Amino acid sequence: ALNGFVLVVTSEGLIFYSSHTIQDYLGFHQTDVMHQSIFELIHTEDQQEFRRNLHWALNPPHAPKGEPSAEGGKNLGSSVIAYKPDQVPPENSSFLERSFVCRFRCLLDNSSGFLALNLQGRLKFLHGQNKRSEDGSALPPQLALFAISTPLQPPSILQIQTKNMIFRTKHKLDFTPLACDAKGKIILGYTEAELRVCGTGYQFIHAADTLYCAENHVRMMKTGESGLTVFRLLTKENRWKWVQANARLVYKNGKPEYIIVTQRPLLDEEGGEHLQKRSMHLPFTFATGEALLYRSAYPLPGFSDPFQSKGKVSKSKKTFHRHGRCSQKDGVDPSSLLGAVMRQDKAVY
What we know:
By secondary structure, the protein is an alpha+beta fold. Among the domains are: 1-58 and 93-132 and 139-154, 2-Layer Sandwich (Beta-Lactamase), CATH 3.30.450; 160-280, 2-Layer Sandwich (Beta-Lactamase), CATH 3.30.450.20. It has helices at residues 22-26, 30-33, 47-54, 76-79, 157-163, 182-188, 192-195, 210-223, 268-277, 306-311, 317-322, 337-342, and strands spanning 5-9, 15-18, 97-105, 114-126, 142-151, 167-171, 177-180, 229-234, 240-252, 255-265. A 5-stranded antiparallel sheet has the order 2-1-5-4-3. Strands 7-6-10-9-8 form a 5-stranded antiparallel sheet. A hairpin with a 5-residue loop joins strand 6 and strand 7 (177-180). It is elongated, with a radius of gyration of 25 Å.
């Protein structure tokens, strides 16, 4: 019911709790952020402001010189002081109330990649942690920030209307599906177990869209974001559903960890318009080496005419299925683009 989400952050900067509605505002799933450092989500210019508000007197101790600023919260432990409850104001004190603005990483934002949030709440003691000091003695409960995070900019009517249709999926770096939210399961009809099949997830994509999607996949691996991609997904009822998607890499400790894709269903007419606008030349050739990402051999086994394999892979659906039965003996890697499409049932076309 909130126009935002609930956030509980410990004095060390770890996210102790986040309500699941964080996914509606930042695109991250609740389980992906809990027990992670809050500073991995906050704009570098706003990290010091957040750190300041975690301290009861708005005056946190500075990290020792020579240590990098606590990007991932790893150096925070050295600069956090454990307080005894009698050293800080009582819990109902107005000194512990907080209201401030920070920019958070947002997978749903196509412009800056950050969303300004107003955090309003107070510092309260977080009980039941059973933490111990270096000498082994039990530490008393420490202050944590309990706040409601709401977007600084109120959502437009259009955003509110389209929000009900948007669904998100989580993938490995090769695009193998890992998870799908409740709306996605309704729209596509699959359970998460059915989505987690062997292969890269390209077997759910229309043959005429595979190379177009692969080009944006390559772009995302290089730049961190795919840009808007319009393509057809196969539903459980063997129907093609047009979606407009934007994929982003999510990093942990500076390395790409997984992909989050935000998708909005389109009408068939809208999808057809995008298809007409799409350039007809192949997005990349097998000579550039980028096909190595998908472990495709060249020349493609099962194709006698080398020009056919190079020029008509994304359009000639009959060619795919005519050779589908002999894909194993020809040695087509089932996780390559060609292997993924060959595994599709030709009846879906």
